[in-house]
Amino acid sequence: MTGSLRAHLCVLLLSVTALRGRGRYIDVQENEISAEGLFSLLNSELKRESPDLYLYRRPLKCLDMVAVEGQFTFTADRPQLNCAAFFIGEPTDIISIEYDSVNINCRGGDFIKVFDGWVMKGEKFPSSQDHPLPLYERYSDYCDSGEAQPIVRSSQNVAMVFFRLHQSGSSFTITFRKVLNPFPCNVISQTPEGRFSMVIPQQHRNCSYSIIYPVEIQIGELSLGHHNDLKRSVPGCAGAGDFVELLGGNGVDTSKMFPMADLCYSFNGPAQLKVGCDNTVVRMVSSGKFVNRVTFQYRLLDHQELQKLKGNSVEDLCLSG
Ligand SMILES: *[C@@H]1O[C@H](CO)[C@@H](O)[C@H](O)[C@H]1NC(C)=O
C-alpha cells in the first residue's frame, strides 16, 4: 500500500470515528456560534451589575451567555430544538447548576443537558487530553438523572447547558452559582487582560488556560521542578515529560491548535510573545514527578499590532511574533 493511500484511509477512518462520536454525544451541540458572536455575548454579559443583596433573576434566551450568578428561566414560545447557554465564572470558580423546576416532556424528546466545559462548532474545551473525566461522563442529562441529581457541578470555570423543548409553554428554571475552586487547572479567561499563576502539584495531568482574544503573553516565571538544563543538547522539548506550550488557533480544542512556543527549562522571565489568533492558550503538561508552576500576564493586542503581525507572515493562518 502506498504511503499516500494509507494516509487517505487513515483520514477516512478518523472521520468515520468522528461522525460516530458526533451521533452519540454532540448531536445538537454543533452550535454555529462564531468567535465574534461569543465575544459580543460575553462583553455584554460582563457589563451587567452584579447584584449583592438578592438573587438576580432573568429569562434565559435560546442562545445565551451567563456570567452573573442568579436564577434563569427559559419558556418556549414555539418549538426550540437547538438551544445552548454558555456559563462562565472567574478563573478560581467552578460552576454549579441547580434545577429548580422543570416542565418538559422527556418522553417526547425534550432534554436539558449540562456539559462539563464549552463546545463551540463541535470543538470542546477542555480537550479530552486535559479533562479528568472521559467524554461521556461530562454530559449530565436531566431526563436520565435530574430528579436524583438536582445539582450539577463542573470541573472548571466554564459549563454549558444544551436544551430542546418541542412544545410551546414548556419551561424550566435553573440557578447558577459560582463555587470556589482551590486548585484551578483548566480555565477560560473572561477578559482580554489579566494575570495568572498555574500550579500543578505533583499530579499527572495537563492544564490549559485559554484566552479567547488575540493577546501578548508575558511569562514572568517558569519553574518545572527539575533540572532539564542538563539536557540542553536535545533540540526543542522532545522527550520532556514536563513542559509548557503556548498555543494559538481559531477553535477551542487545544489538541487542534498550533504550537507557538515550547518551554521546557525553568527560568525567571520575562519572556513575551504576541499571538494574533482568536484563541491563545498556555498549556502545562505535567508528569506528576514535580511541582510545576508558570506565572504569566496578558493584554489585548491593538489593531496596529495585529496588522503588523499579519504583515510579517506569509501564511494567513494564525500569527505570532
Ligand atoms: C497530557 O497531554 C499529553 C500530550 O500533550 C498526553 O500525551 C498525555 O497523555 C496527557 N496526560 C494526561 C494525564 O491526560
Automatic annotation (TrEMBL):
Locations listed in the record:
Secreted
Q: Which organism is it from?
A: Pygocentrus nattereri (Red-bellied piranha)
Give the Gene3D superfamilies listed for this entry: Spermadhesin, CUB domain
Q: Which GO terms describe its cellular component?
A: extracellular space
Which residue positions does the secretion signal occupy?
Answer: 1-23
Q: Which PANTHER family match?
A: CORTICOTROPIN-RELEASING FACTOR-BINDING PROTEIN (PTHR10278:SF0)
Name the Pfam families for this protein. Answer: CRF-BP_C, CRF-BP_N
Which UniProt keyword terms apply here? Disulfide bond, Glycoprotein, Secreted, Signal
SUPFAM superfamilies reported in the protein's UniProt record: Spermadhesin, CUB domain (SSF49854)
Give the chief site where it resides. Answer: secreted
Cite the Corticotropin-releasing factor binding protein C-terminal domain residue spans from the record: 187-307
List the InterPro entries hit by this protein, alphabetically. Answer: CRF-bd, CRF-BP_C, CRF-BP_N, Sperma_CUB_dom_sf
A Gene Ontology molecular-function term? Answer: corticotropin-releasing hormone binding
**Gene this protein is translated from:** CRHBP
In what residue span(s) does the Corticotropin-releasing factor binding protein N-terminal domain sit? 55-178
Put simply, this protein is called: Corticotropin-releasing factor-binding protein
Query: Which cysteines in this chain are paired by disulphide bridges?
Result: C62-C83, C106-C143, C185-C207, C237-C264, C277-C318
